[in-house]
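Quick one:
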Amino acid sequence: MLIEKLDRTQWPLSQAIEHVTVQIEGAIERGEMVSPPDPSLPPWRQTEASRTTAANHAAREIQIALRDGDLHAKGRLSTTQSQPWSAPPDRWDLHSGHHSTITPEQWRAGNANVGLGVLTMLDGQFIDIRVPRFMVLAIWPVVEAPRPAPAMDPDTGKPYRTPYMDLLDSAIAEFRISQRYQCKKELISDWLRTQEIEGEPLSQNLADAMATLIRLPSSQRGGARRGL
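Output:
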């Protein structure tokens, strides 16, 4: 069933805010939106948005989406008042170990601290609030910066390539290298040493360097990494 492929990953609100902050910063860099204002400064002192102001703007966007019901969230609920208590954040105790759905009405009626992932109401409090990753990505999709067009070779009319690039592709295909499987560098290097570029064999240093470039940086600590 297609429903079985649904991405059920849950993000803490802090992670959702970080994602939206990055998208806002990207939109500002691309000129698609103006820098969000810093509410702590008067209009004549506004400067280009810092990461703090972008994060504040992101938190506000998320809170609006939660209040409007466009973004759904769950949290661990407490309806048990702790005694004695001296401040509202300390008022609630014994939060559930399971997450319950938070309604838009609760978001509108409560006092939210989206940065901490807490929603405090008159009759209870949600903590450890989480939102579905796929919903965050649907509302605030990742927009990749446009990549420059590949350099064209005027002699062939195709993107410029070197024999070394072709040999790297051949090595990847030979050892079936992927993110899930990283072959040992020594095996790749030995195979590259058997190949020739323009009739000349590769030096050991060059073969080692090319073998390094093929593998992921996380695999440079040694050994071959296999995915589960």
